[in-house]
Amino acid sequence: MGMGKTIQGIALILANRPDSSNKEQMKLWQQSDDAHEWKGKLSERGNTLIIVPTVAIRQWQMEIARFTKEGSLKVKVYHGADRTASIEDILSYDVIITSYKVC
User: Fold this and answer.
1) Whole-angstrom Cα distance, residue 61 to residue 75?
2) FRET label pair with 69: which of 13, 19, 34, 88, CA 20 to 30 Å apart?
3) What are phi and psi of 7, to 5 degrees?
4) This prediction's pTM
C-alpha cells in the first residue's frame, strides 16, 4: 500500500529547483554554497538522480508524468539498452531514474 513517498519526492524535487525569482531560496542556497566553499554556479544545479529497484523505475516515470505539468520536468530513464547516453545528454535532463544494477 502506498504512503505517498513518491509524490513527496517529486514535490521535493520541484520545490528545490533553482529559481532566481525566489529570493529567499536563492539566499539559502548561496549561504550553503559559501559554507561548503562551492565555487560553481547556481545554474549548474537542478539535476536529480533517483536510484530505485528495477521494478520501481516505470512507477517513478509514470508518477512524475501524472503529478507534474507536462514539460515541467525532463525525465531520463537510464536503464537497459538506453545506458549508452553521453554525460552531456544525461545532464540535459532534470531527473535521471536508474536502478542499482547498472554495470
Assistant:
1) 7
2) 88
3) -65, -40
4) 0.73
What are 48's strand-pairing partners? 95
Task: State how far the alpha carbon of 90 is from the alpha carbons of 16, 70, 78, 98, 103, in Å.
Answer: 19, 20, 9, 12, 17
At 47 the pLDDT is 84
Spatial separation of the C-alpha atoms in residues 37 and 95, rounded to whole Å: 25
Q: What secondary structure does DSSP assign to 22-85, as a single string? A: -HHHHHHHHHHHHHTT--S-GGG---EEEEE-GGGHHHHHHHHHHHS-TTSS-EEE--GGGGG-
**CA–CA distance from 83 to each of 20, 57, 90, 92 (Å)?**
33, 14, 10, 15
Kindly list the averaged pLDDT for each block of 10 residues, start to end, along the chain of length 103: 81 78 78 80 72 92 93 89 77 89 62
DSSP state of 12: H
